[in-house]
Structures are given as structure tokens and as C-alpha cells.
């Protein structure tokens, strides 16, 4: 019997450049998944327009219409579950998720974060790397837990910080690596090579250190 492609939902709050990278990888035949939902906390998010153009169902929920964060998150995850998604990808979703709402999804939800975690959790990562005088910067994809940007790191992409970098230039130089990193990790999940049994496993072995993005993809 043919293997059904993994069903994936994506959450994004902004223009959706990482979502665009996922959709493009899928269109090129490099990412054997089915996108079943793109959701956002902002009705005007560019990510929703990208999804509509790709004929992917969309969902926009306004957090202000809920009594508290937990109520919003519980409804959001209920709707994601109803989409039939096997995996959930946070691609620039700028909200802290309630731990109780998140609990059933632990091990099935990943996030891309613009730093070499565990460095610089939270916001303004490029600025913080520059202010610290770091020699390198990068992006991480990690399993999501209730701890902010604190779940086990799956893979990272690194680049050297250059003398002419400011916050904006560093962010722009990092984006192409993010756009390769996230589809590569999702591909491993869809293929069953990356799994979760309370901790990440890669090709059946515990993933003790993050995979690295090289010229030919992800390598141990």
C-alpha cells in the first residue's frame, strides 16, 4: 500500500517567509507532506495569504476575543486537532503557548528560532548576539515544550558574524539558512527518521547533539 504523506499544520504570526520555504519545498517534490491548515493570531498575517494562494485551509483567531491565554490556546489546539494534522510547525508564531494546552502535542510540535539555542531565548536574538560580540550566529529547530524556546534542539544552521553586520543585515543573511533548515527537519519527521520517545531520536539512536546544516543537508 502507498504510504500516506504526513499531515502538517503551521502557525505563523507574520509575513510567513519560513512557511513560503515549506510550501516551495513541497511544490518541488522535496517535502512529502500535506499541509492541512495554516493558522495565525493575526487576520492580516501574510502567512495566511500565502496559504490561500497554495489552496491550504486557513484559520485566524483573535486572542482578544478570549477570556485568557489558556482559553485561546485550548480552542486553537482543538481546531488544529480537527484538521487531522500529524505534526505542528511554529514558523514565526509570536505567542507563548499554555503548557496544559500544549501537553497533548509534545513530541509532535517543532519551532524555528533565530539563535543557536540555548543562547538567546525569546526576542531580539540578532541584536543580543551582536552586543555579546559573538563570532557566530544561527538558527535552531527544536521540539516545543512548555519552557520558552527550551525544548530539545533537533538541528542548527550557523553563520559567521561579519564586521559589517548590524541587526537587520544579520537577520537577512540568516534567513536563507532558516529557509533550508526548517524543511530539512520536517522532511526527517515525515520520513520517520526523527522520532520522539520523551527525547529526540535520529535513525533509532538518541540525538545527543543537534544535527548541523551543511551544503548537502543535515548531518550529525
From TrEMBL:
It catalyses: N(1)-(5-phospho-beta-D-ribosyl)glycinamide + (6R)-10-formyltetrahydrofolate = N(2)-formyl-N(1)-(5-phospho-beta-D-ribosyl)glycinamide + (6S)-5,6,7,8-tetrahydrofolate + H(+). One of its GO terms (cellular component) is cytosol. The keyword Chaperone does not apply. It is an enzyme of class 2 (transferase). It comes from the Bacteria. The keyword Transferase applies. Keywords: Purine biosynthesis, Transferase. Its EC number is 2.1.2.2. Residues 7-186 form the Formyl transferase N-terminal domain. Pathway: Purine metabolism; IMP biosynthesis via de novo pathway; N(2)-formyl-N(1)-(5-phospho-D-ribosyl)glycinamide from N(1)-(5-phospho-D-ribosyl)glycinamide (10-formyl THF route): step 1/1. One of its GO terms (molecular function) is phosphoribosylglycinamide formyltransferase activity. GO terms for biological process: 'de novo' IMP biosynthetic process. Catalyzes the transfer of a formyl group from 10-formyltetrahydrofolate to 5-phospho-ribosyl-glycinamide (GAR), producing 5-phospho-ribosyl-N-formylglycinamide (FGAR) and tetrahydrofolate. Belongs to the GART family. NCBIfam families: PurN. This is Phosphoribosylglycinamide formyltransferase. It comes from Rhodanobacter denitrificans. The gene is purN.
